[in-house]
Specification:
about 0% strand; 16 helices; 2 domains; mainly alpha; MetI-like fold
Length: about 300
């Protein structure tokens, strides 16, 4: 009976839904921090729906009083002298889908080879990839530009795809996760006659789904918010992306005017929504990746 009571007490303590008084201090500290971090999101959503008269108020109201869709109508309104905004949106979606799929495929294949296959130079190339994590995009902009020019793909969609197709942090993350897959499981599959590609598809990929989801989020943010390719690798306006178009709004005559702040906020909201949606749907996978990253 005593053991049963202790077991029941331990189950109550381990139940995350059970609220204790000791957690009250934790929530008192956490809630103000969460509120402070969510305020910019609330403000950008509110500004995107503000009518013209509220944009001219000083000080500007934090929460919109009379929400309207006029900013979004102005943003999507076709202009005969300019490229329509929907074209930038299509370019961003196309580039993001293609690069995201290719980057996950390439990174997962390379991570599997570096983790579970033996070949000369394996450690060297992994160290090169680790070294690449130290460089920000600005430091390699000139070498990328020279390579794009030599390949002859300036002013093409390939100029958007090739420079960001390899993501070093994705390869590093997947390799570290695949290291935790038991070698005995892979050896058993090989003894049964499975090829390396079958082992990769049928065994490794299902196991590393949490890491793939985490990489997808990291890669999506890099690709979706990328402006380098549109700024340096193309001069054709009709193949530039939405992220670049947003920078022209914020720095141009429209963005600097008070009336243009609503249009800029509407465009910023469109850029932000896909990031939050993909995070909401994959946050459980991210937590699983964090939990398994410490298991050896």
């Amino acid at each position: 009976m005593i053991k049963r009571r202790k077991r029941l007490k331990n189950q109550i303590q381990m139940n995350p839904s059970h609220f204790e008084r000791s957690q009250l201090t934790f929530y008192l500290i956490l809630l103000p921090i969460v509120t402070f971090m969510i305020l910019p999101i609330v403000y950008i959503i509110s500004t995107a729906f503000k009518p013209m008269d509220e944009l001219f108020l000083f000080p500007p109201p934090f929460i919109v009083r009379n929400p309207t869709l006029e900013n979004f109508r102005t943003l999507f309104e076709p202009n005969p002298n300019e490229i329509p905004m929907i074209r930038y949106l299509f370019n961003s979606i196309f580039v993001t889908v293609v690069v995201l799929g290719l980057s996950i495929l390439i990174s997962s294949l390379a991570a599997y080879a570096m983790s579970k296959m033996d070949f000369k130079g394996k450690k060297f190339w992994f160290e090169v990839n680790t070294l690449a994590l130290m460089f920000v995009a600005a430091t390699v902009a000139i070498p990328r530009y020279l390579i794009i020019v030599r390949l002859g793909i300036m002013d093409t969609m390939l100029a958007h795809i090739l420079p960001i197709m390899a993501i070093p942090v994705g390869l590093f993350l997947l390799k570290q996760f695949i290291d935790q897959v038991p070698d005995s499981l892979i050896e058993a599959a090989r003894l049964e006659g499975a090829s390396e590609l079958m082992v990769y598809r049928k065994i490794v990929m299902p196991i590393i789904k949490p890491a793939l989801a985490t990489m997808a989020i990291l890669a999506f943010q890099v690709i979706w918010n990328n402006t380098e390719s549109s700024q340096f690798f193309t001069t054709r306006e009709n193949i530039r992306t939405l992220a670049f178009y947003l920078t022209t709004l914020s720095t141009g005559d429209i963005g600097t005017s008070t009336a243009g702040q609503g249009v800029t906020a509407a465009a910023s909201l469109l850029m932000f929504i896909p990031n939050i949606i993909i995070f909401i749907f994959m946050q459980s996978k991210i937590m699983s990746t964090v939990a398994h990253s410490g298991i050896k």
